[in-house]
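pls ignore typos typing on phone
iron/sulfur cluster + seq
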Amino acid sequence: MSSRTDLIEDLMGRFPHVPREAVIKEDLLRGGLAFDDSALTENEGGDVKPKSYFIFSFDHRTLPELGAAALRRPPEEIVLTGGPYELRRTVVSVRTNPDSPYRVKPDDDGRLKLFLDGRAIAEVGLPPMPDYYRHTLANGKSVMEVAPTIQWGYLIYLTAFRVCQYFGAKEECQYCDINHNWRQHKQAGRPYTGVKPVDEVLEALAIIDKYDTARASKAYTLTGGSITSKVDGLAEADFYGRYAQAIEERFPGRWIGKVVAQALPRADVQRFHDYGIRIYHPNYEVWDKRLFELYCPGKERYVGREEWHRRILDSAEVFGPRNVIPNFVAGVEMAAPHGFTSVDEAIESTAEGLQYFMSRGITPRFTTWCPEPTTPLGRSNPQGAPLEYHIRLLEIYRATMEANGLSSPPGYGPAGPGRAVFSVSSFMDSLPAEPTATEG
Ligand code: SF4
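k done
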């Protein structure tokens, strides 16, 4: 393969039923993109919505290494259209990589374009600064810090606990930089609240509710690091659940409530539901048994893979299988030193996991792995997984879903190329466009 352009065009030719938009989006997500200084945002003082660093860094360099791209922040997301591949509207989360062959910069006429290997391949749209980001809480904190929105404003992302109690090499998931990201923002002197007070979250949500007059925000996600002991005197279900309880009391039914947490015992899962959460994400991370043990050592040690899976199935009895949506990190299956070395094997393993859950009515979903440089797997795999793996995953995901009579999961906005807003993988871009009952 001589260039990245050759690579994507080869895959577009070999997998014509996977939308072209998804091929480019997956490549941008796995490898990142560079920004011309003129395409940066000026933080919260400009007209473009800046990258909020809502949980992980999702960058290919640390903040000090990014220089201007860190100080003047890139946009949270970009939207691609047109160009030689005639792209339909495609929303892509921004993962910065100064060495990427993809670069966002103005063309000779001053129009912002995405360039690949020096050739313009798409128009680039930037997210406008939302009105609610222009207001601050009474204590001066920004809405972007307390309640950032992603997915083109669809999802309010509430990382209530900015660190994880799986700590250090023997416990942290080997692809996760949540703890490093917290440290680097602190070192940069940025506001980055470790535990978000409930009343600050409510105050930020009130600002969003007031100024989001188009009602683009439709869901909130409560998440953060795993809690193996207690935070604020509370175990995991009650710690995250208390935010949902407060939100549902103050804004009943305004947004779909979701939680990303560990696979907890059934009584705890019931408490999540009682607190008002409607969608549960007990992420299983990677399907293969050996890789789960090696790459998620904390989860293996505290809960164990088989128990984790059993709890996922149990939680379907509480939430209903449609509303249990466990995530996996697409690509770590192929991460050295222990991952599969062939795409065939990696797809076969991942497909086995998809079938396990989908045959029981549970629809997993995935985010595209970003090999962040401060993680063990990012360090040993700076290029991430092969693009072909990501494209074939989209193919097998859709096929397994259809074989089991399922459709796109609730709480992700519209499906289909040109319609999807889910920005951290292209699974929603690759599914057929169809209305789902729970979308408002
Ligand atoms: S459980 Fe793993 S993936 Fe989740 S925050 Fe902790 S270290 Fe990261």
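Residues 387-403 form the longest helix (17 residues). The chain has two domains: 4-125, 136-403. more later
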